[in-house]
Design a protein that fits this description.
single chain, alpha+beta, 11 helices, 5 strands, elongated
Amino acid sequence: MKNDQILIYQNPEGKIKIDVRLEEDTVWLTQEQMASLFGKAKSTINEHIQNIYFENELSKLGTVQKFGNSEFQQKAPNYYNLDVIISVGYRVKSVQGTQFRIWATQRLKEYIIKGFALNDDRFKSGTSMNYFNELQDRIREIRLSEKFFYQKIKDIYTTSIDYDPKAESTIKFFKIVQNKLLWAISKQTAAELVYRRVDASLPLMGMLSYDKKNDISPKKSAISIAKNYLNEAEMKLLGLLVEQYLAFAETMAQQQTPMYMKDWAARLDSILQLNGRELLNHAGKISHQKAVEKANNEYTIFKEQQKAIQLEQRLKEIEEDIKRLKK
């Protein structure tokens, strides 16, 4: 790992901003920086650190060091690694500590995978050339893949610098994007599409885009998926919008522009507006739970109808067999 890599940490509220040292596969902060991060006095931070070492929770070896030229190191402040920062955070019961831990873990993952970390204030294109070359190749592969539209978009979002697959905000983000696209092509949210189009009396319960493969009857897992109810024209429009989105993503990679989740959301709105599509600015009139309940009720009716049809078919086959025997 290169020496003297500096990242800028800023908490979600924007009230805390700290230069964070990145070295030896971990991040480092001084006591003064931890005091700023946790909103505590420096003396309090020092006391907790001394207790951490005294109680043998951590060893000083490898968790504290000075940086800089050797002749100035004696006067330089001590830096403490992420293990110490997390331990202090637990002791002061700080929400900021949790936020920082998530941020630091993500940055370290980026560094280890790509060989460097990206940030808003200190991003240098010279050190990130390999990243963007790889990113461009990856996006091109996504565009050419056989995956369904939504999965391609999810794959694009994983290239975001601040992407965290486990974060609740990421899951919510995907749902918002899905609804934005569905509204743009049908003037309905995912829940509204399912609720208004599921119908036990129709073939495949009204699903027009359902990939049934060898399934004669739709599976229960498919009946609550909104895209299964899109008609041919809507599917074609969805494909065109997503292709524009993917082309933009490849352009950003080619231009070596780092992208964050919020950037992708804003660009999606721009592309939809450029195509004259209406932007979704509300939650819709049908809740997800209501849509799922109706789909399940229709599925129950559909299965009963299928049983009745199958029984009638078997009776007909028996009657035909009896007729053949009499002959």
